[in-house]
Structure formats: C-alpha cells, structure tokens
Amino acid sequence: MNYVVRRGATAIATLFAVASLIFLLLHLVPGDPAEILLSSGGIAPSKESVEALRVNLGLDKPLLEQYITYLGNITTGNLGTSFQDGAPIGDEIVKRLPRTLELILAATFISVLVGMPAGVAAALRRGGVIDGLCSSLASFGLSVPVFVTGTLLILLFSQILRLVPAGGYVGFADNPAQHIVYLLLPAVSIAVGLIPVVFRMVRTSILEFLEKEWVRTARAKGLDEPRVLLLHVVRNSLSPVVTVLGLHMGTLLGGTVLVEYVFNWPGLSGMLVQAVEQRDYPAVQGIVLVICLLFVLINLGVDLLYGMLDPRVRYK
C-alpha cells in the first residue's frame, strides 16, 4: 500500500511540475497572441484594439494571477477556451485524442505482429542468415526518420502502385473499410521505427532465458523443444517486452506530429501544431498537459505492475 501511495504522489508531483513548466515556457515564446490574432488579415492592428483583445483574453493580468487561475482550472478539468474561436478546448481534445490513440495502437499491433516472430526466429538462429538479415533490417528501421518513412510509403504505395490513398480520414462508423485503408500507411510509418525495438528486446530476452538452468532442466526431463520454447522461454520473456511497449506507447503520444501532418490525419498532434503557430496558449497547454498525463499514467501503471511482479521493488 505504501508503495502505491509513493508512486501516486510522485505522479501527482510530476504532473504539477509539467503543468508549471508548460505555462512558463509558453509565456517565454516571443509574440503577442492578441496581436497575432488581429494581424491574420495582413493589416497591422491598432494599439487600442490589441489592448482590448488582451483584456478580453485575460492577458493583461499579472503572470502570477494567470498562473494561479490556470492551475485552478486544470484541477477541475477545465482546460479553457481557444483564443481562435472561443470553443472549449476539452471538447476538441476529446474528439481528436481517440484518433491519435487509434494510430498508436495500430502501430503497436503491427510492431508486435512483425517484431516478436522475427525476434524469436533470430534468437533461435543466432549468428545465422536469419539473425543477420533481421538485425540489419532493424538497424535500418531505427536509423530512418519517421517522416522519411512516411514519404517513401506514399511514393511507393500511393503514387507508383496506386494501392492506397496518400492521406485523409474517414470515420469508422461512416465507412469501416475505407477507414482502415486510410489508417494503414500512417500506422506502418510509426511501426517501422517500433518494430526494431520489439525485435531487439524479444531477441535479447529469448537468448537470456535459453541459458537459464531451469530451461536446461526442462529439456533434461524430456520435454519436447516446442513446449520448452513456448512455456518456459517465450512466455517468461514477454514481461520486459510488455514494459518496453508501454513506455514507447507513451513516447509515441508526442511523437506522431510528423506522421499526422504527412498523412493529413486529424489527430491531437495536428491540433497542437496549429495551436503553436497561432500562439493559442490555452490550446497548447491543454494538449501538452493531456499528453503528459497519459504518459505519466502509463509509467505509473508500469511501476505498479513491477511492484506486483517483483515484491523487492516495493522496498527500494
């Protein structure tokens, strides 16, 4: 119980620090949001109109007062309203967040589907052709930026082969088949960088467990090789893989910006880019805070899972 309380308190303190850092960094960015909003038509606004808009947006108040108001709002779940259209930011995040999560989950599924069998095969054929080929492809996948991967996929499958559209979005309820088609390329673009992580972790874990004494004992008792591999090696090697996947899923929450931009996927990252360009402080604060909240919750879940699997962790 004390372990859970400590981890929960750490998560709350982390969120408080992140929220404060987001607020301070955004207010250090050059540019007046009121002036930027009034200059959208290309005409320099008057000082009176800029000052009036600053008062309307609450930007005329002292920074400390804005900070206290900001913290008070987020504790009640109020992420504020957009400077652009006055719409509640929370409503737009609720609409866009599932699209980003869907993209991440699809990429994770693809990476597990490809990376785990490749890791097992490479470990069982250590030093062979399969191991060398898979390791080389994994190194290549890690070295290629995601926007390069996305551009190459569009060029190959959309422009040359014309198998799938280059980008866009259709709701699953409107057209399930077309929705999956639009989801495929951006998910694969993310998965290309995640597959090597899964592959290397699986390969390393399999090689480690193959050397365990209880695996040798199982073989000595006469168990057939497939049963030894599935029940005693692969099964026990899944724990570190699940942990790494959980941490990388949290990282991907803030790493889908380029993918959503390249494929015109209307997720949370696209909204974040637009909010930064327009100096929409409440929108940027709300989006980054939600991403950090999910990341902290994922890490908290991993810590608690470690505490359940290994009691020694609770006393550290």
Question: Could you characterize what this model shows?
Answer:
The chain is mainly α and 316 residues long. The chain folds into two domains: 1-84 and 280-316, no CATH class; 91-277, MetI-like (MetI-like fold). Helix content is 75%, strand content 0%. The protein contains 14 helices and no strands. It has helices at residues 2-28, 33-38, 47-57, 63-75, 89-124, 129-143, 146-160, 176-210, 213-220, 225-234, 238-252, 257-262, 268-277, 281-309. Helix 1 runs antiparallel to helix 14 and helix 8 crosses helix 11. The longest helix is centred in the middle third of the chain and has 36 residues, at 89-124. This is Peptide/nickel transport system permease protein. It holds the Pfam family BPD_transp_1. Belongs to the binding-protein-dependent transport system permease family. Residues 97-306 form the ABC transmembrane type-1 domain. Keywords: Cell membrane, Membrane, Transmembrane, Transmembrane helix, Transport.
Topology:
Blueprint: H1 2-28, H2 33-38, H3 47-57, H4 63-75, H5 89-124, H6 129-143, H7 146-160, H8 176-210, H9 213-220, H10 225-234, H11 238-252, H12 257-262, H13 268-277, H14 281-309
The appropriate CATH architecture of the largest domain is Orthogonal Bundle
- Using the CA coordinates, give the radius of gyration: 24 Å
CATH topology of the largest domain: MetI-like fold
The global form is globular
Instruction: Return the domain count.
Output: 2
> How many strands, which pairing sense, and closed or not: the largest β-sheet?
none
Say what oligomer this is.
Answer: single chain
Overall number of strands: 0
Strand-residue fraction? under 5%
The overall pLDDT, averaged over residues, is: 80
Q: Roughly how many Å apart are the termini?
A: 14 Å
Subcellular location: Cell membrane
Pfam families: BPD_transp_1, BPD_transp_1_N
InterPro entries: BPD_transp_1_N, MetI-like, MetI-like_sf
Keywords: Cell membrane, Membrane, Transmembrane, Transmembrane helix, Transport
